[in-house]
């Protein structure tokens, strides 16, 4: 399962690995670093909805900061 998370981090251009989150689940910590240098930590429901399911192109933060096509 950790291989899946690594793949997700490498696919989204803004998602960065962070410090591991302590707890019984053993989740890996992640955060978003945007082109302007700002950093945002997504909420757990956002991580489940967009990051873990590889739906990052539909993430509101990605859509807001992605370059115009």
Structural notes for this entry:
The chain has 3 helices and 3 strands, in the order H-E-E-E-H-H. The chain has 69 residues and is α+β, with helices and mostly antiparallel strands. The chain has one domain. The longest helix is centred in the N-terminal third of the chain and has 10 residues, at 2-11. The termini are far apart. Residues 1-9 have low confidence and may be disordered.
* Percent of residues in helices: 25-40%
Strand order of the largest sheet: 1-2-3
Uncertain stretches of 5 or more adjacent residues: 1-9
Helix and strand element order: HEEEHH
Main structural class = alpha+beta
The radius of gyration is: 12 Å
Tally the structural domains: 1
Question: How would the global form be characterised?
Answer: globular
* Number of DSSP helical runs: 3
Q: How far from one another are the termini?
A: 33 Å
Q: Could you give the count of β-strands?
A: 3
Largest sheet: 3 strands, antiparallel
> How big a fraction of the residues is strand?
5-15%
Q: Report the oligomer.
A: single chain
The mean pLDDT is 77
Kindly summarize this structure in a few lines:
This protein has one domain. The protein has three helices and three strands; from the N terminus they run αβββαα.
What are its keywords?
69 residues, alpha+beta, three-stranded antiparallel beta sheet, 35% helix, 13% strand, globular, disordered N terminus
């Amino acid at each position: 399962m950790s291989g899946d998370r690594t793949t997700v981090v490498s696919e989204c251009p803004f998602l960065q690995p962070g410090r591991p989150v302590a707890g019984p689940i053993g989740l890996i910590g992640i955060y978003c670093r945007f082109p302007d240098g700002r950093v945002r930590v997504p909420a757990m429901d956002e991580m489940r909805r967009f990051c873990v399911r590889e739906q990052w192109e539909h993430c509101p933060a990605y859509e807001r900061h992605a370059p115009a096509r």
